[in-house]
Amino acid sequence: MLAKKLLSNKHIVVIGAGISGLSMAKMLQNHCKVTVLEKGAQAGGLIQCKELNGNLFHIVGGHVFNSKNQTVLNWFWQHFNKEKEFLKAKRNAAVYLNGKRIGYPIENFIYQLADEDAKAIVNELVQLVKTNQVENRDNFRDFLLNKFGATLYNLYFGPYNNKIWKRDLSKIPLDWLAEKLPMPKINEILQSNILKHQETEMVHANFYYPVKGGSQFIINRLAEGLDIKLSYAVTKIEPTTKGLLINGGEIMADQIIYCGDVRKLNSIFATDNASITKATNLVKDLPANGTTNALCETDETDISWMYLPEEKYKAHRIIYTGNFSSTNNAPAGRKTCVVEFSGQYTEAVVKEELIHLPGNLTMLAYNYHPDSYIIHEQNTNNLIQSVKTELAPLGIHLLGRFAEWQYYNMDKCIESAMSLADKIKLMNENANTN
Ligand SMILES: Cc1cc2nc3c(=O)[nH]c(=O)nc-3n(C[C@H](O)[C@H](O)[C@H](O)COP(=O)(O)OP(=O)(O)OC[C@H]3O[C@@H](n4cnc5c(N)ncnc54)[C@H](O)[C@@H]3O)c2cc1C
């Protein structure tokens, strides 16, 4: 349907100016005309930050950067001065249990738990080795139980994950979480407890953080030199013989990189093609949780994250963003942190909750973001793949956390953008040689 043109003559429209869309636009910028359309008044999506009276508010959690993929790191550092513009920090996290700070990841700090819990955990781990259940990976609940035993599950993994996902963990398939989960072997857990080694394997065990501006700094730098239209919501995409018509004629694209929510495509994409309609219809009700975040002043602490598994707290973690960079705090104020709740809580409920958390917290700002944690069901990957397969021949490609419905961190968004940019370049070359 689309006219054959060299990539250099094409107009690619990227929908969404989050990390996925901007990375993609940057990767294609020197190959063709690229326009980014963003419905928000500020670029950044989930990693947006706002400055409030000298304090930096990560409006959805607190974002730090790292990657295990050297190609992603190489690409990323092309855009920044790593030494001057970023701070490198070691993750120093804790779990708050019974009013006491336990090291993180908790399985490496069993010796800090009450004696009876520690004994039960060791017995269960030994039993798991004996019964050889450690590789059971059918669903999230069984994975956690068979990896860590019932006591660690009941103390931490179960209640913490129940708070985040707000659903029966045995109904959550494991394949989509697999790469993001800690996968320590039992001998490694026991060794860590005896030798007291620090964690090194998790992607954010060490991380980079901008000296100034938090993750918004990353966005602003990537946005430089790009053609971005803010406050531009794409509400309609229509395939025509000349290309893909956006919002009824304002912009014509040869190809579209869609970084918005895959659930909205059913209403945005105007087509009488029954199989596309069927594919987009099947994903329109995928479940997700939003997050409520409160920027607070806090007493000084030396940690970066504190996890709150206990049911008596509605929040699930405190992110000490004021410790990530001193420029995140107003000079005259106390240090700042973000308290994160999965789901929607009113400002009044959040204020009441803060009283019970450690650190003498005072709320400075509040935000609710409707979609932050995507949730998979058994067939979700297949459904998303069908949408991708249906739309790709029309020149519409899905990219990012909500378009691909993947539990991506920033680095995975960049990795996915790299792979899609390569595919687009290749597809265009092939189309023009056929
Ligand atoms: C609480 C929390 C903490 C996290 N912490 C970290 C961390 O420390 N490190 C890390 O690497 N990752 C972290 N992540 C993951 C990270 O936030 C995401 O991977 C990343 O921000 C996703 O970027 P994206 O561009 O795919 O999506 P988004 O950021 O959602 O961007 C999509 C953009 O598209 C726009 N858009 C949508 N529909 C339309 C439309 N119709 N028209 C125009 N524009 C549209 C949206 O407004 C948005 O700006 C965290 C996530 C959460 C929820």
Detailed description of the structure:
33% of the residues lie in helices and 22% in strands. It has 434 residues and is of the alpha/beta class. The strands form 5 sheets. A 7-stranded mixed beta sheet has the order 7-6-15-16-17-14-18. Helix 2 (70-77) packs across helix 13 (410-433). The longest helix is centred in the middle third of the chain and has 26 residues, at 140-165. Flavin-adenine dinucleotide binds at residues 15-21, 37-40, 45-47, 60-61, 63-65, 233-234, 259-261, 291, 340, 372-373, 400-402, 408-411, 413.
Distinctive features:
five-stranded parallel β-sheet; 19 strands; FAD/NAD(P)-binding domain; binds flavin-adenine dinucleotide; alpha/beta; 434 residues; seven-stranded mixed β-sheet; Polyamine Oxidase, Chain A, domain 2; single chain; globular
Give a brief outline of the structure.
By secondary structure, the protein is an alpha/beta fold. It is 33% helix and 22% strand. The protein folds into three domains: 7-41 and 230-286 and 376-433, FAD/NAD(P)-binding domain (3-Layer(bba) Sandwich), CATH 3.50.50.60; 46-104 and 201-212 and 288-374, Polyamine Oxidase, Chain A, domain 2 (Alpha-Beta Complex); 106-195, no CATH class.
Assembly type: single chain
The CATH superfamily of the largest domain appears as Protoporphyrinogen oxidase, mitochondrial, domain 2
The helicity comes to 25-40%
Number of strands: 19
In terms of DSSP E residues, the strand content is 15-25%
* Shape designation: globular
Structural class: alpha/beta
